[in-house]
Amino acid sequence: MTAKLSYQYVVLRCVPRVEREEFLNVGVVLYCHATDFLDVAWQVDRERLQAFDPRIDVDQVCDALDFVKAVCTGDPRVGAAATKPVSQRFGFLKAPKSTVIQPGPVHGGLTSDPPRQLERLLHQLVG
């Protein structure tokens, strides 16, 4: 039997117009302390986002999600965040923000395969 590992995740939401409080799920960040795993999976549906706000810069949304990926991988181009331990990088990513990309509440679960669980969550929560 494969050991189950606890993990935490947040759903990343695109909030084109913050004042309207409408959002579309665009990604998932998953953190597993036991394996030092931190990664993001994302998928942007341009047509759905533009239905929320035709003026949204979808490329800018994708750039913001690429930044999240860089924080997850510790890419030095993201500055000081890259030098922090994985747990602190997850803390940075799950913190509430008043930007177009916002994390939802932290959820948890058990898995024997964090990367596979991340893909499952992306399929279930983002589409």
Instruction: Spell the H/E element sequence.
Output: EEEHHHEEH
Mean residue pLDDT: 94
Strand content: 25-35%
What best-fitting shape do the alpha-carbon axes yield? Answer: globular
Q: Structural class of the helices, strands and pairings?
A: alpha+beta
Radius of gyration from CA coordinates: 15 Å
Strand tally, please? 5
Number of helices: 4
Low-confidence stretches: none
Total number of distinct structural domains: 1
**Largest beta sheet, briefly?**
5 strands, antiparallel
How far apart lie the N and C ends? Answer: 30 Å
InterPro entries: DUF3037
Protein name: DUF3037 domain-containing protein
Report on the structure:
- 35% of the residues lie in helices and 26% in strands.
- The termini are far apart.
- Strands 1, 2, 3, 4 and 5 form a five-stranded antiparallel sheet that branches.
- The protein has one domain.
- The chain is built from four helices and five strands, in the order βββαααββα.
- The mean pLDDT is 94.
- With 127 residues, it is an alpha+beta fold.
Quick overview:
The chain is an alpha+beta fold and 127 residues long.
